[in-house]
Amino acid sequence: MLRIRVVTGTLLCVLGGWIPAARAGPVDLRLSNARGLHGPTADVRDAAGGTLVAWHVVRPGTGADIVLHRIGAGGAAAGAWKVADVLVCGAAGDQWHPAIAGDGAGGAYVVWEDARAAVADGAGARSDIYAHHVDADGLLDPRWPAAGRRIGREHGLELNPVVVEDGAGGIWIAWDDLSGETGRVLARHVDGAPDRGRFDSPPTIVCAAADEQDSPVLVADSVGTVLVVWRDHRASDHATLCATRLLASGAADPRWPREGLVVSGGGDVADPAARPDGNGGAWIAWTERRTDDGDVFAQHVLASGVADPAWAAAGVAVCAAPGSQDAPTLLDDGRGGVVLAWQDGRVAGQQNVYATRLLASGARDPAWAKDGIAVSTAAAWQVGPRIVTDREGGTLVTWLDGREAAPTRAYAGRVLASGVVDPAWEKGGIAFGAAADGAPALVPDGQGGALATWHTLDGTWANGIDTDGPSGHVRALWTLGFAAPAPNPSSHHVRFAFTLPVRERVLLEVFDIAGRRVTTLENGVGDAGPHQVRWDLRAGDGHRVYSGVYFARLAVPDRVLNRRIVVIQ
């Protein structure tokens, strides 16, 4: 039985019942339908306003491969790319743990751990660092070997690659090299020349001091040069934190101490993080166990190779609350200071997220609470904080949250520039993503908000986070939409444009004023993103329709949208 219902002047035609309720809340954008186990994401903004996302996926029978995906400006799938997913490397053995940096021209460099040599010679513990370049059209750079270029100096055990742009179309790469008796941090500069797929010189040994170095962090401080921060085991009973500056040639800046500047105190350090200060130096943060389970410290290093004399010589104690404080992240807030966030164990049996702001002098911003403000103190645990600056000078924070018994989920919160948690946001943060198996990666979206990506074991996902409106909200990259038909009125043809938030079944039909179906324009499964359909003003039997009023009906599994069309023949 056909039932017709008029709502706010729009004729809605539904077979067998009333229109189902509208979908509630934002819908996560699934970045890939690739089957297999998905690993953590690595993100970077590209020169065209989009976001490049890399991850590894373990496919049945083939091992782990590296995939690169582009989200266009505003969430458009792939943008200018011919395909959304690029298989960066599918060589034998496992390729995993990718890192990514833009090339300044809309493309990206992807770096990863690669075990193809272990398969080739049957060795067990073998891992090399490889890289590839993908251009702005989403194509593998033909100047590079088809399966990527080995970056390291020899087959051995190379792990934990990190990469940053060099400001001139190239990149700096650093990694842990455990090939010899003593672990070293190695680095290589890949410039933007046409032969950038070739490497004729060996990588740079960042520090040759006795004992091991590991856990490199890179900061691009100016065109062609880079700051390297690492954990150093030259002290017999603990790891210290050191930094140096490398010139474009790979040589150490002669102004810096020969074996690096020690920036930490006398405790064991972990979790180094660093960001550029905009003047050739860097803000550095880390966890250090001086008196208890670990506190967060920070230092400002100048381009000249010395610690900022306004800061404490062994770093500023960012938080000295009871319990452990670790996994710090930080950013230059654009107002002369630095914002930090970390996971905090001051409450027994919990891990929560806290944040603070330091002034250029190294002093805590007096508007911010001593030992940090609580971004989330929900039950159980919140870990892996990431931060970006929003359009109003505040800070958007994301983390992985275990307050629910299952599943774990991604959450977001906001701290105002005044040093308080935004009271308009839900206390304890806003959940996004139906589930998450790791802390989300976070990058600015170019519109004053942020784009978060994360993984579950069977998929890779994305969503937007914004501050518009009276309260913060998660902004779906794609929401269901049905644009006004054009031209309208029409005597020749009509274009229908609609967007789908996820890959799902879609039905687009045209009805006359009496509710009779005139034609079906779309009936199948559509991908997430924009779609266009053209109607030539013909009925399903091929004859041209008469002048009058018609209604286009777009239906997905849990929602229906309608548009009015006037035909003039």
Features of the shown structure:
43 strands, five-stranded antiparallel β-sheet, mainly beta, 569 residues, disordered N terminus, Tachylectin-2, Chain A
What does the model show?
The protein is mainly β and 569 residues long. Among the domains are: 89 residues, Immunoglobulin-like (Sandwich), CATH 2.60.40; 155 residues, 5 Propeller (Tachylectin-2, Chain A), CATH 2.115.10.20. Helix content is 1%, strand content 48%. It is built from one helix and 43 strands. The strands form eleven sheets. Strands 3, 33, 34, 35 and 36 form a five-stranded antiparallel β-sheet that branches. Strands 4, 5, 6, 7 and 8 form a five-stranded antiparallel β-sheet that branches. Strand 34 and strand 35 form a beta hairpin. The N terminus is likely disordered.
Query: What is the alpha-carbon Rg in Å?
Result: 27 Å
CATH class of the domain at 325-479: Mainly Beta
Fraction of residues in H or I helices: under 10%
The H-level CATH homologous superfamily of the domain at 325-479, spelled out, is Glycosyl hydrolase domain, family 43
Terminal Cα span: 31 Å
Q: Could you give the count of β-strands?
A: 43
* Largest sheet composition: 5 strands, antiparallel
Number of helices: 1
* Second-tier CATH architecture of the domain at 325-479: 5 Propeller
Low-pLDDT sequence parts: 1-26
Give the CATH topology of the domain at 325-479: Tachylectin-2, Chain A
Determine the strand fraction and express it as a percent band: over 45%
What structural category characterises the helix and strand content? Answer: mainly beta
Q: Could you say which overall geometry the principal axes of the C-alpha atoms support?
A: globular
What is the mean predicted local confidence, pLDDT?
Answer: 86
